[in-house]
Every structure is written in C-alpha cells, then in structure tokens.
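Quick start: read one record
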Amino acid sequence: MATRTLHSIGREACPLLVVDDLGPEPTLVADIAAALGPFPAARGNSYPGLRRTIRPDDGPAVGYARDLLRGLVPAINEGFGVDGFDLLIASFSLVTARPDALAPIQRAPHFDSADPLILAVLHYVGGAEGSGTGFYRQRSTGIERVTGRNNAAFMAAAQAEASGWHGYIGGSTPSFEQIGAVDAVPGRVIVYQGSLLHSGHIPADMSFSDDPRVGRLTGNFFVRGRPRAAARAG
C-alpha cells in the first residue's frame, strides 16, 4: 500500500510530496524502459545523461506512465492546491555523465520552469544507491524558487560564481545552501514545483551505466496543475 508524506521546503514553505510503494515493481519498470533502448543523449536541457521520451505508441511505457500519474492525483491535488493536472512530457532518464565530464551548468542546482503550476514528478526506479535529490537556496540572492521577477538575478549570480563549481553538488557549498533532500529509494515518487532550485545527488562511485537495468534510471514527468475554480475566479 502506498504511503505519502508532504514536506515543506525552505523559507517559502513550498510543498514536497514523497510517495512510497506506488506503481509496479521497479524491476518491471526497468524492463519496460530497457525495451525502449538504447536511449539517446538528452537534448535541449542540462540533464547529465540519456533521456528517452515516452511516445503515444510505446505501449507498456504509456500504461506505466498513465497508471502512475492516476495514482498520484489525490495527493497532488491536496498537496499543491490544484484541481487535477495535464501531462506535458513523460520520459525515462539515465545519469551517465561522470563528475569530471560535466559542463558548468550541470554542476549546480537548476530550475525547470518559472511557472509555479509546472510540477516535476520523479520516480526512482533503480541504480540509485546512495543518490537522491537535493533542494537549495542561492546564498548570494536568497533565491529558493525562481520566478519571472527574480530569474535575471539568479542567472547573473550563477554566472559570476560558476568558476568555483566542481563535480556534482552533493550538499551545501559556498554558493548554495541545501534546504532539503530526499533519498532515491527504488519505487519512491517525489513531486515538487519545477521552479524550486534542485539537483540530483550523484555519488562519484555510482554506476554510470547506460543499461536501464543497471544504471540510475528514473521516470520523469512534467505536469501542469489546473487552478481550482476559486483561484481562477479570484
């Protein structure tokens, strides 16, 4: 039976939903992902590895995504104050870039969207021993969640400080203070606003395999919450 916990992150008390034991066994999900391999390199973002978008004709993968998200509807509605959500993109991802091969943008926390209704849904599947996801505050600006108003300030500070970043971030640094973290337990799902500064915790000795049955495999989904009627009216 799935269990869920709602946390608050940072000074803004942003919601972080953690759900355990939801969906099929992780080994079955890994088999579904492996059937879609080999994965292409991630493009158009800073993800340090491979990413395979789940397409409408991907059969079992579509069923996996549909069932997982349906199971999250009540918890997301309650935790994020929305009236359902719409799926924007679904994919499987594998971290394959070693710490010494990262581009500067991959060495620090990032955000996915400044839209507060865009939610990231991350399903830890396998190969994630010792890893997880961290949430951060940019020390020089105090930014925890990027918005249209503070995006320029966040980017300017990040560019000025980038020369001091090395490898994957794995906790507080001179540039960023960790304000929350979740361990990557197989079968665990976390949901958070994509505007929160976040990064994967990737140990240097982790497997960086491109095999979905061996490497750090996650199911990644972006959804957009539908504002509740009262909020729309206001």
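Residues 227 and 233 are 10 Å apart (CA to CA).
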